[in-house]
Amino acid sequence: MNRRNLLKSAASVFAGLVTKRELAAQPAIAKATRGLPSPKIKDIQVIATAPAGLRLVVVKIITDQDGLYGYGCATFTQRADLVVPAVEKYLKPFLLGKPTDRIDDTWQACYNSSYWRNGPVLNNAISGVDMALWDIKGRQANMPVYQLLGGKVREAADCYTHASGGEISQTLDSARAIIDRGFRYVRVQVATPGYEGYGAGRSGQATAKVAGLHSGAVFESTPYMRSALKLFEACRKSLPEDIELLHDVHERVHPIQAVRFAKDVEQFRLFFLEDALSPEDIDYFKMIRQQSATQIAMGELFNNPHEWVPLISQRLIDFIRIHPSMIGGLTPARKVSALAEAFNVRSAWHGPGDLSPIGAACNVTLDVTIPNFGVQEHSPFPPHVQEVFQGCPVVKDGYWHPNDAPGWGIEVNEQAAAKYPFGSNERDERKDLNGGWGEVRKRDGAIIKQ
After folding, report:
1. Helix, strand, or coil here: 40?
2. Rounded to the nearest 10 degrees, what angle do helices 103-113 and 120-141 cross at?
3. In the predicted model, what is the mean pLDDT of residues 172-196?
4. Active-site residue numbers?
5. Is 296:317 a contact under the CB 8 Å cutoff?
6. Per-residue pLDDT, 33
7. Which domains are seen in the chain, by residue range?
8. Residue 32: its pLDDT value, please?
9. Predicted TM-score (pTM) above 0.85
10. In 352-393, at which residue ranges do the beta strands (DSSP E only) sit?
11. Distance (Å, whole) CA 393 – CA 395
């Protein structure tokens, strides 16, 4: 064999060896480039706790990767015990072994697998799963969830909180204390003399309770509206002009009364009038819009698109006030906010005291990542809640700041949670009704919406 042929033969053998080595190395290279494989759902647990006397439901998803898990809010306080088996007996067996990274696909699968859908129990159960998957994705990426959604469009969320009193003077004092803490938005409620009311109870002991044909709580819409109008007038006279006022009707008036009430309050320039109608009566929003420029917020009780799509697309409301866990979590709430943006409707996500800190973190994440943010309801977290939920989002000078830790930035102390089982610190109706609400009736005994 001459020298040229020898070199050709050696080169051919070497090329073959390199090719074999490259082929053998490809899987290792691909794995290194790809990082860890997609996590799969190994277990789903429910943490049921009531550190402040209100029943909070948290879903914990554990993956097949050591130390990787996430939390989601599934809280439906008034029917909390129903959400727990919805997760444990239905969603858990359906989801075990599925990948954690296909969040929208998982949401659609959970939503459609029940066939009958759009109910608050299942929606909250799905929300627990959905938020937990977003938490996992944030922990994987070592980023807060707001970074996964494209980053901030504002530094923090402007909040309002609740001023109330048995008398107008008490509500004014409560509002001033809130303003002194840095808030620029205040929801104002006052009791109606002799009647039960929403957000303020009944006025002072010197006011005799109005007698009814029953022994329970009595409410009448006309006296309530008179008291509220007097409150708004006093607020505009006594509080700084630049303070934004909000008020919650809580759907307790007849629809045509709501139309007139919206007209009557227009002079007081409310930032918004909340839940003037119940979900069953939303067609009356057309009449309100035709006759009043009062800004309207609606959606706290909504749980399906048939309720919010007409109001947003017809520009009949100014603020969409959905409770994200009630519609299924962060995934659908993002879609609602995108729809609302197209029609210049702003957000005002529901943020009551019976919302878990994880649900609050979801709200604040939405607030800082959507362009059409309006205002955020804030209810403070009592010490026992902060004992269980470590890393609660912080309010400073009326602004709520999202956590910068990965995921929601919250860890649940499960030992502390176990100290406060359902029923802890419940009294009166809540104790008797397993955490649920009681009833309110008119003088003649007819039940009202609440």
Report:
1. strand
2. 160
3. 97
4. 198, 250
5. yes
6. 43
7. 148-405 (3.20.20.120)
8. 45
9. yes
10. 376-377, 389-390
11. 7
Is the pLDDT reported for residue 26 higher than 90?
A: no
pLDDT digits (tens, 9 = 90+) for 27-76: 554 554 456 689 999 999 999 999 999 999 999 999 999 999 999 999 99
Residue holding tokens 């659609």? 108
Q: CA-CA distance, 71 to 180, in Å (whole number)?
A: 35
- What pLDDT is recorded for position 450? 82
Measured distance CA(212)–CA(207) in Å, rounded: 15
SS (H, E, C) 230-296: HHHHHHHHHCCCCCEEEEECCCCCCHHHHHHHHHHHHHHCCCEEECCCCHHHHHHHHHHHHHCCCCE
Whether the pLDDT of residue 3 is over 70: the answer is no
Instruction: Specify burial of residue 237 (Cβ count, 10 A radius: 0-12, 13-18, 19+).
Output: exposed
d(CA 337, CA 153): 14
Query: Are 188 and 224 within 8 A, CB to CB?
Result: no
How many Å apart are CA 241 and CA 239, to the nearest integer?
6
What does the mean pLDDT of the chain come to? 92
Residue-level pLDDT at 166: 95
CB 426 within 8 A of CB 50: yes
Residue 332: both structure tokens together: 């659908």
Nearest residue to 176 (alpha-carbon basis) of 230, 238, 227: 238
- For every residue of 101-156, DSSP letters joined together read S-HHHHHHHHHHHTSS---HHHHHHHHHHHHHHHHHHHHHHTSBHHHHTT--SSSS
The torsion region of residue 219 among left (phi > 0), alpha (psi -120 to 50) and beta comes to beta
Residues 6+ apart with CB under 8 A from 149: 334, 365, 369
At 198, list the tokens.
């929403």
The alpha carbons of the chain give a radius of gyration, in whole angstroms, of: 27
Going by C-alpha positions, the residue among 159, 184, 161, 157 that lies closest to residue 369 is 157
